[in-house]
Amino acid sequence: MSGRISDSTVRRLSLYLRMLRDLERAGAEFVSSSQLAEPSGATSAQVRKDLSHFGSFGKRGRGYSVDGLVRALEEILGLSRTWKIALVGVGKIGSALLGYGGLAARGFDVVAAFDVDGAKVGTTAYGLRIRPMTELRSVIAECGAEIGVVATPTEVAAEVAAALERAGVGAILNFAPIELSEVNGVPIRTVDIVLELEGLSYLMSEAGRRTGSDA
Predict the structure, then answer these.
(1) How many domains would you assign to the chain?
(2) Which of 39, 63, 80, 203 has a CA positioned 20 to 30 A from the CA of residue 166?
(3) Residue 130 main-chain phi, psi, to 5 deg
(4) Domain span holding position 12
């Protein structure tokens, strides 16, 4: 592999893998770079460039082996194993994540859940007992959680991320609407639903402005 791979490339690899899994279930044996490019909005050349970072996968005249490329991308993305997740914040977003079966199907297993609400602590949600934050470090050490998920109010998100880092997780996914910086080298990725909706709002408004100017 040559150099550091950009986040945009990694995201496209995930999209390629999603399509490849669909093709695999449909019984397809080979796929072309142009077919892989369609769902990601990339070009054939971009697909070939993305994959070339990790080796040579295509067969001249036939394209890529669907089964072979699925296994290769799973290995590249670290999905040939199961990742254990610790969730902090069992509100609406946290509860939705606990109840989402698609995580386990993709190799992400929520093994611990935490909250500060006394009414929730000690109860069970989707088969998982909710623990108090005072047990964060000991429970993560016991269950071996490697990824932390922050689904808390904005005002405590940074504090929770720092606590997860101290507890030993290697990466953090943040659902609080605030951009968090990595903590002592632990990468943090933020999912901001409002930010994404504002982006869509701009695109729709821009389309309306272009239509208006063309009238």
Answers:
(1) 2
(2) 80
(3) -80, 125
(4) 7-76
